[in-house]
Amino acid sequence: MRQVISISVGEIVLKGKNRKNFENALINKIKRALKNLEIESVYKEIGKIFIEVKNHQDIDEAISIVKNVFGIVYISKCFRVDKDLKKAEEAIRAAIADQKIKDDFSFKIIASRADKNFPLTSPEINRHFGGFVLKNYPGAKVDVHEPEYPIYVDIRQYIYVYIGRQKGLGGMPMGTNGKGLVLLSGGIDSPVAAFMMARRGIGINAIHFHTYPYTSERSEKKVLDLAEIVSRYTGPMKVYSVNILEINRTIAQNCYENNMTILSRRMMMRIAERISKINDYDGLITGDNLGQVASQTIKSLKVIDRATDMLVFRPLISFDKQQIIDISEEIGALETSNLPFDDCCTIFAPKHPNLNPKLDQILKEEEKYDIEGLIERALETIKITKID
Ligand code: ATP
Ligand code: MG
Question: How is 300-351 classified by DSSP, letter by letter?
Answer without folding.
Answer: HHHHHHTT--SEEE-TTTT--HHHHHHHHHHTT-HHHHTS----HHHHT--S
